[in-house]
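Box 3.1 — From sequence to structure: Translation elongation factor EFTu/EF1A C-terminal domain-containing protein
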Amino acid sequence: MNAAGESFLMGVEDVFSRNQGRVVMLTGRIERGWVRKGDDVEIVGFGGGAIVPVEGIEAARGRLVGEASAGMNVGLSLPGVEAGTAERGQVLAAPGSVTAHAGFEADIALLAEEDGSAEVRTGERLQFHVRAAVVPGVVALSRESDSLQPLHGGAVTVTLDRPVAMEEGQSFAFRHHGRAAGTGTVTRLLH
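Predicted structure (token representation):
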């Protein structure tokens, strides 16, 4: 953690294999905190969980730096990680600071019908976008209603096909029938 008490968190946007696959570079934007060369980071989400040291940090135009902080777009070189085990949509975080979840409760708001939204019913499969992760899941509306109409909102429970790194207060977007449908905020983590 840094002096302000914020632990490191970076969403993985891309994965590159280097040195004949012995080192993997994960790129993304640091959301909070900072990371230094030699720090241990945890790969969270999609079955991750490995804790590995940061071998190198690349900033803009391939410039090597000793540390990076919130707001920077960087690439982190991680030795011992196989390219197939790291993927877009995972996060790199201070070990133990973030966990992956396949279920959560949320408040959602649907877009207008002319913006692509449509009625959402319990049991429908939606596509959820959390950071760079895109994961299908099933939505269950609260007991007070059996459907939500465009331009309305409500409380839902979501069960994702794969666990994603998330926290309470995390924002997300979702698509319905291939079209942008709305946004939401995680209110409670499950599973």
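Summary of the box: The radius of gyration is 18 Å.
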